[in-house]
Write a structure and sequence with these properties.
Length: about 270
Amino acid sequence: MPNGNEPAARDTPVPPATARRSGLSHHWAWAGVTAFATLCVLTGFLAYQCSPANQAGRLADASASGMAKLVAAIKQDNVVQTFEEHLESIRADTQGRLLVAEVKSNEDFSDTDSDLLGTTTSEIRVPVTYDYYVALNEPWAFQINTSPGGAVTCAVLAPNLKSLPTPGIDTSHMEIKSENGWLRWDKNDVTANLLHTLTPKASARAVQRLPEFFPQAREGVEKFVKNWILQEYQIPPGAPVFIKVTFRNEPPEAPNSQPELTPPPPSQ
């Protein structure tokens, strides 16, 4: 019971639990709406950035920029100089050779020795790897043209195609067949002599077979030159850049005969 000097305590109304729950639900509802709206905006942005149309547009812009740089370099006649600087930069790492073709082939070699007592023969079949290259310090020639549509065609006159002096011989898969003459028992000696001369025989055959591998070597040089152009001028891989390569030592009757490369006009 309150005394006479103290005011009577007032009853403070307590909000019902349902009212508190309603306010809390209202707060989370707005938070959910905000999060959903943010997610929609982010999803739309990512969808646009990753859309094929946008990616194609970026690719076209990059291609156009790179092609413009290449065309400007062609007009200034410094593409060859830039390419020669690139060759100089990789010369030490490649021992001055640009390997452009690797050919693996099963080769047959034989040797015989004859006298009045008969003929002894020895035959060897062995896998051989021939490597072909062009020298980086020998002259290269270029003729680069651009079409009204923006395509770039580069005709390259590459140095002589050569074979590495020592082909790779896989003796682990070598097959040997030998026969003695009528009254002779020296097939092991003939086989040993053939084995001794196997490397020089393979080297000579690499030179003999070189004309067969011009097409494969041409593809190697085309890939090398095109990759350099795309990287140097930051052009996307799908850009219309076409490379045509001919070697200085290609025979005249080759399908891809040497293009006529005219010297650039003198600078004004």
